[in-house]
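tool=predict chain=A
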Amino acid sequence: MERAKKASPLVLVVVAVFGGILIPIGCAESQPSADRDTETLRVTFRETSDLGSTPRDDPRGSTGTSVNISALHRSGDISVIHFRIEGDYGLAEERWWESESPEKLEIRDWRACSQSTDVMPEPHPITVRVLLKELFGPKAIPDDAKVTKGGAKWERNDGFITFEYVDHGGEYPDRTVTTIGPDGGGGSRISEVVTAASTDAPRWGEGWKSCAAPAPAE
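tool=predict ok
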């Protein structure tokens, strides 16, 4: 997972289509339950990826997905995170992370009806603060941010990936985040961010055991 070490881990968790070790479909699964001391943070956003060489403000040549993240936590300390990624034709992929095995990420690819595991890169999203920071940048806006029509704008480069942030002035994280590859192309854009508290615990999508793998090519 070398590429995951070079960029914001959670952005890559959402953007990248991970490989991994295939494990049997229909294996036992655990569903957490919320109690009065826990709550679920829901984070939803629109992600445009595979921008290629098109300009950052040009949607042509890009594909969009809807991402729904449910994080079960107690006073900000996260125990379970469920990622649900939907494309134009419905549910495309789910990912599951637990603090008891912070290096492990379970993945269900609904398009191929395959289940796999991969390594969750550090820093692990053990708190709500870390989760939001890795996705949307620190809450504080840098003093040198530029004032633009869309809001405060700044960039950060980790030596491999450039992260462009635009804060629209609402409650954090009311932002658009664009990742740009070392050649100036590729990457993704996160927008239309909504966060809300929920009493429902994270859960895998229904119907996985009846998922039918595509027929092999002749």
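The helical segments are 9-15, 128-136. The mean pLDDT is 82.
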